[in-house]
């Protein structure tokens, strides 16, 4: 995502980065050819700066994009950002300073997101929107993500301001409604994904035990009514979906622990609104067991857990 932003934003704009994962930061620095704290490197690393804290990113930026695993992480990061008033952004003397824009692409619960949005707005530090994404690691690398945007349409201009920024990292932006609704849409999607992933693994394992060629079975499913993202793009059998994590011992992709977390959040929201969900509890048990055996692997590793 950071590479896509740097490639597509104006050359004169500076990209400021902080990542709590120091290994990821090191890998990014090595890939784009910069050194921490250096924002003036020629070539593809030009005008990028790595800083030591989220607060520093916010101080230096008009647009702040956050992507974090858990609700507690999002709350802690924004607490550090909002603990003291941010300095005003530079602007021409004849114009008011631009308003900071906070875009949170984390997948968390809508209630926590609304709490953070309220803190940003109460402290008058800018505007906050939720924009969780779908498309996985491959979509992030290729700029093919779909963003589900939760942003107020009452004040005018906010959706229009956010949309082209998200399009720098993805192909599609769907405005779901007011702040928090992007996350509701994402959790509904990932509830379905969690279950269809298990069903795909079970179907492929059935085919294997019946003596069917997995590539032929995959072709059948993906040309028939059983087709889904887990069968076509992220098939759990090596050789069916080129480039899928199954071809690399289930490394990379969307970690099983993250899938379990998203399903847990979806179930919590379902209980909050009184929605009847019959398959979620059992799916949660499956992912708990799979995480215990295969933590760190792509969630399609359910297939191997089943004995495939």
**Whole-number average pLDDT?**
91
Our Rg estimate from Cα atoms comes to: 21 Å
Strand content: 5-15%
Gross morphology is: globular
Q: How are helices and strands ordered from N to C?
A: HEHEHEHEHEEHEHEHHHHHH
Walk across the major sheet and give the strand order: 3-4-5
Helix proportion: 40-55%
Low-confidence stretches: 35-45
Distance between the termini: 33 Å
Q: Count every beta strand, where a strand is a DSSP E run of 2 or more residues.
A: 8
Task: Please work out how many helical segments DSSP would assign.
Answer: 13
**How would you sum up the major sheet?**
3 strands, parallel
| Class derived from helix and strand content | mainly alpha
Question: Explain this structure to me?
Answer:
The protein is mainly alpha-helical and 308 residues long. Helices cover 47% and strands 11% of the residues. It contains 13 helices and eight strands. It has helices at residues 2-8, 22-32, 54-60, 71-82, 110-122, 136-142, 158-166, 181-209, 214-222, 229-232, 256-273, 280-294, 302-305; strands spanning 15-17, 48-50, 63-66, 101-104, 127-130, 133-134, 145-150, 170-177. Helix 3 packs across helix 4 (71-82), helix 8 (181-209) packs across helix 11 (256-273) and helix 11 packs antiparallel against helix 12 (280-294). The protein is globular. Mean pLDDT is 91; it is low at 35-45.
């Amino acid at each position: 995502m950071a590479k896509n932003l740097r490639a597509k934003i104006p050359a004169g704009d500076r990209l400021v980065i902080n990542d709590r994962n120091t290994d990821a930061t090191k890998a990014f620095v090595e890939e784009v050819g910069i050194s921490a704290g250096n924002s003036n490197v020629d070539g593809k690393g030009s005008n990028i700066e790595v800083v030591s804290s989220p607060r520093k990113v916010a101080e230096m930026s008009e647009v702040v994009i956050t992507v974090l695993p858990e609700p507690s992480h999002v709350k802690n990061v924004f607490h550090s950002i909002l603990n003291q008033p941010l300095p005003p952004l530079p602007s021409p003397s004849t114009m008011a300073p631009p308003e900071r824009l906070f875009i949170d692409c984390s997948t968390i619960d809508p209630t926590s997101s609304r709490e953070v949005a309220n803190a940003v707005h109460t402290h008058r530090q800018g505007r906050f929107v939720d924009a969780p994404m779908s498309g996985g690691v491959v979509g992030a690398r290729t700029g093919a993500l779909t963003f589900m945007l939760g942003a107020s349409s009452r004040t005018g201009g906010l959706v229009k301001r956010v949309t082209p920024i998200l399009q720098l990292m993805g192909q599609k932006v769907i405005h779901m409604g007011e702040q928090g609704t992007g996350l509701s849409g994402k959790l509904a999607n990932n509830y379905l994904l969690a279950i269809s992933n298990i069903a795909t693994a079970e179907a492929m394992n059935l085919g294997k035990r019946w003596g069917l060629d997995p590539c032929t079975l995959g072709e059948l499913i993906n040309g028939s009514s059983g087709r889904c993202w887990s069968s076509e793009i992220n098939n759990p059998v090596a050789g069916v979906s080129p480039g899928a994590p199954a071809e690399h011992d289930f490394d990379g992709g969307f970690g099983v622990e993250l899938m379990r977390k998203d399903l847990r959040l979806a179930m919590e929201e379902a209980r909050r609104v009184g929605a009847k969900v019959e398959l979620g509890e059992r799916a949660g048990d499956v992912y708990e067991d799979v995480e215990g055996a295969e933590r760190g692997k792509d969630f399609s590793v359910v297939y191997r857990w089943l004995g495939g």
